[in-house]
Please model this.
Amino acid sequence: MFSETAIKELEEIRAKYPTARGALLPAIYIAQREFGHLSSEAYEAVSVALGVPRATVRGVATFYAMYKHKPMGRHIVQLCTNVSCMILGAEKLADFLKSRYGLEPGGITPDGRFSLVIMECIGACGTAPAMLVNDDFYENLTEQYIAEILEKYT
Ligand code: FES
Model:
């Protein structure tokens, strides 16, 4: 079940689209936020909220790689390792995340604090390496800077 806040948010989003299917992407995002990841329960909640078949919800959700289909940490670290970031040391930063935090791509830290997702280019090639933590953007990364950043997320 969605929270009262999410139900209100879904109603506002639904009103912006001529059909319920048009609201699927933001509705799925809300479900992911509410449920932590996209489970059968989350698909069902979106299906009921929008009046769209559950198979349609699942079909749309599984088409996009940026949705989370398994349990994740409380904070999602999304590190870009595409060309510019790779040239400027992103792979070493991924090694740092593994050695310091036990964080591997697709994994969760033992305390459930972080998950790591390796990203394609996030549009910050000029200030690479770059990453997101949840919706927060960081650039010109170094090991020390990453350690400082992650201290902010409990
Ligand atoms: S390659 Fe990493 S931001 Fe573009």
The chain has a mean pLDDT of 94. The first helix runs from residue 4 to 15.
